Amino acid sequence: MEYRGRVWKFGSNIDTDLIIPAIYLYTTDEQVLREHCLELIEPGFWKKVKPGDMIVADDNFGCGSSREHAPIALKAAGLSCVVAKSFSRIFFRNSINIGFPIFESKDAPEKVKSGDELVVFPEKGVITNLTKNEEYRSSIYPEFFRSIILKGGLLNSIK
Amino acid sequence: MGMTITEKILAKHAGKKTVVPGDIISARVDLVFANDNTGDLAQAQFKKAGFNKVFDTQRVYFVADHFVPPKDVACAEQSRRVRLFSREMGLADFFEVGRVGIEHILLPELGLIKPGDLVVGADSHTCSAGALGAFASGVGSTDMAAAMAKGELWFRVPETIRFLYHGKPGPWISGKDLILYTIGQIGVEGANYKAMEFSGSAINALSLDDRFTMANMAIEAGGKNGIFHVDEKTLEFLKSRAKGQFEVVASDPDAHYSKTYEYDAEKISFQVALPHSPGNVKPVTEIGKIEIDQVVIGCCTNGRIEDLRAAARLLKGRETSPRVRTIIIPGSQEIYLQALQEGLIEIFIRAKAAVSLPTCGPCFGGHMGILAQGERALSTTNRNFLGRMGDKTSEVYLASPAVAAATAIRGHISTPGEVR
Q1: B321 and B341: one domain?
Q2: Do residues B283 and B410 share a domain?
Q3: Which CATH number goes with the domain that contains B252?
Q4: In terms of domains, do B245 and B155 share one?
Q5: Which of B263, B281, B304 is the last residue of a domain?
Q6: pLDDT-based confidence at residue A159 (cuts at 50, 70, 90)
Q7: In a domain, B198, yes or no
Q8: Chain B residues within an 8 Å CB radius of A88
Q9: Are A60 and B188 in contact (CB < 8 Å)?
């Protein structure tokens, strides 16, 4: 398993209101959530993003509300994964629970720029930057999280 | 080695004698709840996964508090989906207009959360209930669906950070000032993944309502939960409310804390969080003259009776500034009634403030007080992210009810002492 795509680079404290503003929480329709994903800081993001693209961000990605609509919107937008220095706790749980891959990396967010082409190898804990020909380290999931993701999310794993 | 309150509650609910930070456990939950937004997604996930029965109809609640009263047809449909699901599952109750309060105010008020309980809610401010000595933590909708189905959920046992507040808070200084000050000190991820345990003589001096305010904002520092020890004020609150027995849990003297922060409460002045982060905190006296278009007093953070009383003490016999739209939101029907009986509502109306029914409304930018381009609000709510209360060029400043009332009167951010 690997994730390959173009980088969208963001800073610290990208909160869930930025990922999907609360006015769209009236719905669970992935199409609606996708179309408004990150619109406050990257207008038209959903049209510009290509399948497989990934977000690389600094600290505390996904802070704020518990809305699972946030990782759902990112996943529905076609992103393959998010790499960040750190994630806020509820966003972390929600992503694992819906089977959306997220990875912690201290060095990748320091070095990576928007538009770089990355490959994430989750089993090895390695991220390769094809554009810059660099390599970074990423977290490896504990077995418990890995099994949830492999089963396609928490609800599949407890059935 | 001893355990903290948080560790003891998690151990007990996982059927273990002890747990240590880092353990991944499956624990029994005493109460599971969601609001209209997250509950809708939770019921959809629950059904999609093929579940058709909740683990206990007395321990699962939906509280329609966000887009209520429904602001449009789409929101009305969302409330209906949650209402129908509650009925289909045979849940003991469903809370909506007329019976509703903001979830984190209503559920403790109804005695549904007790000391030692393990509570999960699909709302990040679920941590509020830690004021009662319960472990309460916000989760997402899939977590909610799993907990509804099985009555248990996975947790990583958090390390506990201890916050000790010495001395006694000054006049008009509230739990809001203490918690804003703390978040300003440790930062918005200063307690990420961790339990925040609040204690010290200043905490003992605080009302329970102030403790709810502090526990409520644990999440703004990234905290998994915020928790307080039970004392006579907690027991007084629970006396006529608690449904069933409970066991008071306390941290052991030799419990391990990953860190201890100590603050002198007497030195903590009126605090305000500037845009666009709850961690961007300064004393009110250091920010200069900032004019305000809207004041909001309410929300799960500060919509309790003590909050309304503080605002009323300042607004009594005065008028809000003509440049400020002042919106006051009692957090529940019970609080609304009590405020009415105490004459607070009349004080607000005579001061030319608008009194709303209980709703989360403006706090999350939903409805009932949205900001136009470039407008500024001073609000007793918990978040001031970019665009949180309206247009992305608007600004939200966070402060206590007393600072909010003083600001409403003077038209710019002010302390109670500046009100003449």
Answers
A1: yes
A2: yes
A3: 3.30.499.10
A4: yes
A5: B263
A6: confident
A7: yes
A8: 189, 192, 222
A9: yes
The partner residues of A137 in beta bridges, in order of sequence, read: A126
Position B419 in a domain: no
Please give the pLDDT value at position B19: 98
B49, A159: Cβ pair inside 8 Å?
A: yes
The pLDDT value recorded for residue B1 is 86
CB B100, CB B106: distance < 8 Å: yes
- Residues of B with CB below 8 A from A42's CB? none
Arithmetic mean of pLDDT, A116-122: 97
- By C-alpha distance, the chain A residue nearest B25 is A144
Tell me the pairing of strands A54-57 and A102-104.
unpaired
Contacts of B126 (CB under 8 A, 6+ apart): A66, B33, B104, B119, B120, B136, B137, B138, B139
CB environment A149-159: b (16+ within 10 A), e (fewer): beeebbbebbe
pLDDT at residue B48, as a whole number:
95
Q: What is the pLDDT of residues B36-58, one digit of tens each?
A: 999 999 999 999 999 999 999 99
Q: Which residues of A touch B (CB under 8 A)?
A: 13, 15, 17-18, 21-23, 25-28, 40-41, 59-60, 63-69, 72, 86, 88-90, 93-94, 97-98, 142, 144, 153-156, 158-159
Q: Please state the CATH superfamily assignment of the domain spanning residues A3-158 in this structure.
A: Aconitase, domain 4 (3.20.19.10)
* Same domain (yes/no): B42, B186: yes
In which band, very low, low, confident or very high, does the pLDDT at B145 lie, cut at 50, 70 and 90?
very high
Interval B191-216: pLDDT, tens: 999 999 999 999 999 999 999 999 99
Residues in A closer than 8 angstroms to B77, CB to CB, are: 26
Are B185 and B305 in the same domain? Answer: no
B248 with B315, same domain: the answer is no
Rounded to a whole number of angstroms, the distance from the CA of B78 to the nearest CA of chain A is 6
Quick check: A41 and A66 in contact, CB under 8 A?
no
Number of domain units in chain B: 2
Q: How far is A68 from chain B (nearest CA, A)?
A: 5
**Would you kindly state where each structural domain of chain A is located, as residue ranges?**
3-158
**Measured between alpha carbons, how far is B142 from B144 in angstroms, rounded to an integer?**
5
Band of the pLDDT at A150, cuts 50, 70, 90?
confident
| Residues of chain B contacting A17 with CB distance shorter than 8 Å | 364-365, 383, 385-388
Contacts with A, B 223-262, CB within 8 Å: 224
Does the pTM exceed 0.90? yes
Range of the domain at B352: 272-414
Collect all residues with Cβ–Cβ distance below 8 Å to B20 and sequence separation of at least 6.
B7, B157
